[in-house]
Amino acid sequence: MTIKRTTKRDTILKGLMGEAYHRALMAFPDEDVVVGSRFASPDGVEALKALTEMIPRSGHKAVGEERAWGRRLARRFGVDSTYDEQSFVVASGGQSGFLDFESSKPEKISPDIVSLFKTVNAKKGGVLIVHGWTMAESLVKLGKHS
């Protein structure tokens, strides 16, 4: 999904994520939900800022269950053949469906987020699979239609 580079792109991203959370809320009203996506650059990770404990994250060594969720997402995205479960990086061919978003304030992107992308080769179609959880009570707020 590409978000056009306009002055309203942050609002559009927020709206799209609100709709995604609303759909998750309708499907799983009383459950915690894992949310994940593929990113070719650090800018798009902003979409997941509402999640609890994003994986991967700087200074955190992913445990077995976290790596298993990464593998499941890679398989679901059809990129498991070039996926590395330690780094959460898809080496190539991973851009057939990723969130393409360019931040209007790139200087505000956390250096910790930027460092996660040091081994992502976007020119070869590389991406980083990022996921995290939203608890049921948070999902009610995130998925609420105004």
Structural features, described:
- 31% of the residues lie in helices and 16% in strands.
- The protein is α+β, with helices and mostly antiparallel strands.
- It has helices at 9-27, 64-77, 111-115, 136-142, and strands at 33-39, 52-55, 83-84, 89-90, 127-134.
- The two termini are 24 Å apart.
- α1 (9-27) crosses α4.
- It is globular, with a radius of gyration of 15 Å.
Chart the SSEs and their pairings:
Blueprint: H1 9-27, E1 33-39, E2 52-55, H2 64-77, E3 83-84, E4 89-90, H3 111-115, E5 127-134, H4 136-142
Antiparallel strand pairs: 1-5, 2-5, 3-4, 4-5
Q: What is the share of helical residues?
A: 25-40%
SSE pattern:
HEEHEEHEH
What summary fits the major beta sheet? 5 strands, antiparallel
Characterize the quaternary organization of these chains.
Answer: single chain
Q: What is the approximate shape?
A: globular
Brief overview:
The protein is of the alpha+beta class and 146 residues long. Helices cover 31% and strands 16% of the residues.
Note the main attributes of this structure.
single chain, 146 residues, alpha+beta, five-stranded antiparallel sheet, 4 helices, 5 strands, globular
